[in-house]
Amino acid sequence: NLATRNSTWVTHRAALTVESALPADMQIQQTSRPAKPADPDAVVSQQTSTGSTAALSLAALSTGQPVAPYVLCAIRAHRALGKCGCMMRRSTSDRGGYSFTVQEIDDFWSHSWHAGWWSKMTTLWLYYNGAPAALVGVLIAFVCGFFTVYEEIAMLAGFASLHVVAAFWPTSRCVFLDKACIPQNGAGKRAGILSLGFILRSSRTMLCLWDETYFTRLWCVFECAAFLHLREQGHAGRIVVMPTYYGFLSCCISACSFAFKRMHVVLGYLGLGDSFVVVLSCSLVALVCCALLFGRFVSNRARAFMIQKQRLQDFSMDSVRSFCCDVGHTHPESGKHLQCDRLLIEQAVKDWFGSIPLFESYVVNTVCRQVPDSSAMPYLYLAVACSPVLHVQVYRWSAAGLECCYDAAVYGLFEAMFSAPLIWNVMFKGFNLVAAHTLTTESKMCLCTIFVVSLIVCILSVGALLAVQNLVFAWFGFHEALAILSLIEGSVLAAMYLPRSVWRKLCGCFRR
């Protein structure tokens, strides 16, 4: 123990001696607040005086070591998404000035600047703020029951608070956004790019914002492959693929959920009553109309998802593009010469993977497996989007003084957690099948095909689900029926989200 303490003290003293020998702008700042990053140009120019910057930089990119101190910067997620996603826009030069040095990054945002900024912004709102927004929306609807007798006010308040909180919830996760954390010109940009391996090694999660252009960009493919390569070497990080249309789709689902819960009001105004046959018929008609509105959109996105995965299986370095080569290595605005990123990445690929063909094989065999087989929304995001179904039930519970209508609140929770997500999931599965069929037969998707599929899926999902629910409620008591239905629908949802690898293992066990 004494020898260990002496060794630790000597090491600490040597570190202090080395730090004191560094220039002032390179010494570690001892402060309780997040330190602002030092001037990267000054740091890199200091290294340039040694005459070995080129070799040092290439070694840093290939070994995952930082080129200069303070290259590991991050920004709060709510800052990056502030001002309506100003930093996510390619045309803006606003970097915000909110980045600070960190020891570890929570999320590394890997995205294509050719994707729509609004789709990335809404998807990130769903990813970070979806769960708290759903809880706040339910709470607002519940509180409205103590102050107003108008159910419409509670529904509107809960629906509005759901989207407002999703847009402005101050999530404190430290994220890496290249525009905010790396200088966009000068030697600081080169230092940040060459330290990419170190930045990836210091990131807990890589969040891939997938769109149609993601796997066509050289930097995006290299970031995914490098992160997975580091994870194979012992880096305990995880990769999350988020299609950028999830945000728009969740808004559509929440609007449909809000409209469905107000259907009985419309039926009352029309004098149609609220019998089971009338409600079922109107629900089917409304659901088919909603499916037609964005069914083609979902099918096109699912088709693009499958096409990208097929292209990734035939990946080659010549098939991806980079910004510098697209503009002829001349910046379109400033007219300055741009260093070729492709040459830099190719050299790093050779150092990391041995050769370019081995890298291409790694992308085909490893990166491609990380891309999900289906683009259907995960259960958590479906539950968030379906949360307006619960608003009217919790309002009635609180408006009744918490004494009656308790069963209605429990049933609303059952609808929001099981029934509604199951219906939407079945619908998305149908659209994915349409996309897969048109991709296999190389045919085009027409509105008639979408209508037929929407009608079949809606009848099978809504009709079968409501019929089973009514039968179970007729045979059992209320709470027993809810428990049985929750078990059945929860099992179906779990089976839908099981990956194919799990299904293969289960089938293999049954065969044995």
Automatic annotation (TrEMBL):
UniProt KW Transmembrane keyword: yes
Assigned keywords, A-Z: Membrane, Transmembrane, Transmembrane helix
Lineage: superkingdom: Eukaryota
Transmembrane segments: 126-147, 153-169, 239-260, 266-294, 447-467, 473-498
Protein name (database record): Transmembrane protein
